[in-house]
Structures are given as structure tokens and as C-alpha cells.
Amino acid sequence: MSHVTSYTFDRPVSHGLQRLRLTPKSTAGQAVLDWRMTLIGAREEARYEDHNNNATVLVSIEPGTTELVVSCEGLVQTDDRSGVLGRHAGHLPMWHFLEHTPATRPGPRLRGLLGAIPVEDDALATLHRVSAAILASVAYEIGQTTALTVAEEALAAGSGVCQDHAHIFISCSRMLGIPARYVSGYLMMDDRIDQEAGHAWAEAYVTNLGWVGFDVSNGISPDPRYVRVATGRDYTEAAPVTGITFGRGEQAMQVSLAVRQQHVEQ
């Protein structure tokens, strides 16, 4: 797979820092066989694992830059675990994933949606019902929401994208007392290789199973077509690129993504 994010600035940048969560890690269901990142217009300052255990690269934008390009390319081997990742890794306590953020804080519409869903003793069955109810209430439609849209707003609008579906699911899970988190990553599409964006879904912690993935937008749990890259309590903690720049004026961003299957000789 390859992922290129490019920024063009109408005035030279005087200073900038970017936090890149673009490097997947070997974990349950996936093994990173090769991964390379190259930069144009920036230099790497540090590599570390953030509080969510995400592989993170901190880069500084070179003064005077008018174009920044971040290119990633690699090979990840995946297998089918029916969406089940298993035990919790990292140092964050489970209650951390029960706390609402501004993006997932429930309002009357979210409470109404959850109140209309039959709740069973079987948490896994209940979560699948929640996923189906969200997809029935919020149609997948590009351009109706933004990265700043919160779960309550997306539900009120009745349309959104994978980020909105994930936030609504996380909000409902937390209202049920089930820890939940946001996942950013890649999905190999059956009908195309080239894409304009990555993908997002949610994971909930189910007793006796551990973390289980739910892709509300596609109505399934992740399978071998999915590659996990970063997680967090919401989009802001798992966003592929975050940062700040000074002296840049207006900017334009373009993303190109290609995900394809490759058979590896054993």
C-alpha cells in the first residue's frame, strides 16, 4: 500500500510541527513486513509511542517551505480474526475508554437512538444491534459533515461518513458502560485500488473477548482487508496528521491512497 499526503502553501512557512500517525504496528491480526516514510519539505525530529500506543513521528517543516509531502509505502500481512483483537495492550486503564469526549458526548438524539434499541445480556449482540441502528439512521454521504462534526450533530443531520459512524457508535457503547475507542487505518476496497482517504471504524471491549472491531459504515466487523494504524478515544487522538504551522497563509491539501493485495512467497 502507498499513502501520499501533500500540502501546498501560498506563502513560505516560517515554522511548523506535524505529528504523524501513519505507521501501523504489528498487533493481533496483522504483521508489518515493511514500512517506509519519506519527507519533502520537512525533517524528522523524533519517533515515539504516544499514550494510546500509536507509532508516532514528529517532524518539523523546513523554514521557507511552500510544499510539504509525506509519502508512506509498505507491506502488511493480515489474517481473519472476525474482528476480535483480544486482550488490552498499553498502560491506559479501561475506564479511560468510558469517558466521553466533546466528539462523543451524548445529547437527546443519541440517547433516543440508544433507547430504541433492545439491550440484551449478550453485549456482543447488543453492539451489533447498535451498529445496524446507526447505519439505518445515518446514511453514508460524503460532504455533509467535516472533521469537526460531533456525534450528536451527525445523527441530527442523518448523514455522514465513517468518522461520524464511529463517533456515534463509541458514544452509544460508552452509554451502555462498554469501553470503546476510535480506529484509523486502511481498507482494501473490492472495486478499486486508488482512494482519496483512509478509513475509520470503532472497537469495543467485550468481556471474555477483549477488543472487537465494528465498521458501522460497511455493516461488518473488520476482516483481512483492514489495516489498523492508530487508535484513540476519538478522531483527534487517532488522526493521521495533526500539527501547527506559522506564516503559511492559505493551504491546500491532497491525499492519494492505494491499497492492493499482494501474495507473499512463504
UniProtKB/TrEMBL annotation:
| Gene3D superfamilies linked | 3.10.620.30
Check the record and name the PANTHER family matching this protein: BLR5614 PROTEIN-RELATED, SLL1049 PROTEIN
Q: Which InterPro entries match?
A: Bac_transglu_N, Papain-like_cys_pep_sf, Transglutaminase-like
Any one Pfam family match given in the protein's UniProt record, by short name: Transglut_core
Where is the organism placed in the taxonomic lineage, from the top?
Bacteria, Pseudomonadati, Pseudomonadota, Alphaproteobacteria, Sphingomonadales
* SMART domains xref list: TGc (SM00460)
Taxonomic source organism: Novosphingobium tardum
| Domain of life where this protein originates | Bacteria
Residue limits of the Transglutaminase-like domain?
154-218
Put simply, this protein is called Transglutaminase domain-containing protein
